[in-house]
Design brief:
The protein has helices spanning 2-15, 26-59, 76-105, 235-244, 255-265, 303-311, 335-347; strands spanning 112-119, 122-127, 132-133, 136-137, 143-144, 146-151, 156-162, 180-184, 189-193, 199-203, 209-215, 227-233, 291-294, 297-300. The chain is built from seven helices and 14 strands. The chain is an alpha+beta fold. The chain is elongated and about 100 Å long. The protein has three domains: 2-55 and 74-105, no CATH class; 112-244, Cupredoxins -  blue copper proteins (Immunoglobulin-like); 255-347, Cytochrome c-like domain (Cytochrome Bc1 Complex, Chain D, domain 2, Orthogonal Bundle). Helix 5 packs across helix 7. Strands 3-2-1-7-10 form a five-stranded mixed beta sheet, covered by helices on one side. A five-stranded mixed beta sheet has the order 6-12-11-8-9, covered by helices on one side. A two-stranded antiparallel sheet has the order 4-5. It is 35% helix and 20% strand.
Length: 349
């Protein structure tokens, strides 16, 4: 225990004097502890190895031409220890890192969900109540980054996707979605955003303040300016902000309500029931989060599966239903409309 206290105090002192930003999440503290452990263990190993080599070179330097090299036999204990001790350190580091990585990838079930849409070269944050946060312009004409507002102490799950520059275009290569990477240095979290699928990331802020967001993957000419921010506020301030900004891009409708409108206007109602009854397509009742049998095997109905079913309906057809019935909505739905349909399906219990 004293070792971790020593490492924590050493890093806390170094934090104010080096390039490392303050740790604003619990996971960030865990990552910093691993970093400090690896730093110190590497330094100690370096001193022992290089220092020992230098000491042996000086101590056993050949002084005269008549000096003879002493006959040295094997020391099995020493040979075992200099292999076993580094092995234990490596296994300990791996196990510690795996535990923290598992924490980073295990999404809490009660997390606040926010959709993140990356596009050359900007970010959009869409809340379930329909509120959409985009970049703005200040009084001097300078671009202001999109700022995500989240409550302190509550887990937040980001559902992220890459969008075309022009969603209506299917031909111009310049309009294609590209690879991005959502990186928050103060949270010590980074996740690639891959075209054609959803990726997820979660965090739970423990400090109030505004923290920078960068794109950590080169995505084109405007990569350098692809910045955003996360503003962490007290829970009561967040609820006040959310209720005061409820009139979002959907005319005051939540994402689920927008999805219900699309369910009706896009004729989804003709094939997919909400009450469990069979139609030309599988019912949406209680389907999200469950496993279903398809012509490609059993899959879990999550955001990626629903997205694929909307854009490529014949990729994985639910068993008992005929393929080729549902048309592809690729190029017909915007990213936020797909998000809205997914959020609506989540509510159909």
């Amino acid at each position: 225990m004293w070792l971790f206290q020593l490492l924590n105090s050493a890093f806390a002192h170094a934090n104010s004097d080096t390039f490392m930003p303050p740790a604003a999440t619990e996971i960030a503290s865990h990552v910093d502890q691993i970093y400090v452990f690896l730093l110190w263990s590497s330094l100690i190993s370096f001193v022992l190895l290089i220092g020992g080599m230098i000491w042996f070179v000086i101590k056993y330097k050949r002084r005269t031409a008549s000096d003879k090299t002493a006959y040295i036999t094997h020391n099995h204990t020493l040979e075992f220890l200099w292999s076993f001790i580094p092995f234990c350190i490596f296994i300990f580091s791996f196990a510690w890192g795996w535990i923290v990585f598992h924490q980073m990838r295990s999404m809490p079930e009660n997390a606040l969900e926010i959709h993140v849409v990356a596009k050359k070269w900007d970010w959009r944050f869409i809340y379930k109540n329909g509120r959409e946060i985009v970049a703005g312009v200040d009084d001097q004409g300078n671009k202001t980054p999109a700022t995500m507002v989240v409550p302190m102490g509550r887990p937040v799950k980001l559902i992220m996707a890459s969008e075309k520059v022009n969603p209506a275009s299917n031909e111009d290569p310049k309009d294609r979605p590209v690879l991005h990477s959502f990186f928050v240095p103060a949270f010590r979290t980074k996740q690639d955003i891959v075209p054609g699928r959803y990726t997820t990331l979660w965090f739970q802020a423990t400090e109030l303040g505004t923290f920078n967001v960068f794109c950590a993957e080169y995505c084109g000419d405007g990569h350098y300016a692809m910045r955003a921010a996360i503003k962490v506020v007290k829970p009561e301030e967040y609820e006040e902000w959310l209720s005061g900004e409820a009139a979002g891009a959907g005319g005051g409708l939540s994402l689920a309500e927008q999805g219900k409108q699309l369910y009706l206007s896009r004729a989804c109602v003709g094939c997919h029931s909400l009450n469990g009854s069979a139609g030309a397509g599988p019912t949406w009742k209680g389907i999200f989060g469950h496993d279903v049998a398809t012509n490609k095997g059993t899959v879990k109905v999550d955001e990626n599966y629903i997205r694929e079913s909307i854009l490529e309906p014949n990729a994985q057809v639910v068993s008992g239903f005929q393929g080729g019935v549902m048309p592809s909505y690729s190029g017909q739905l915007k990213e936020e409309e797909i998000n809205a349909l997914i959020e609506f399906i989540k509510t159909v219990k």
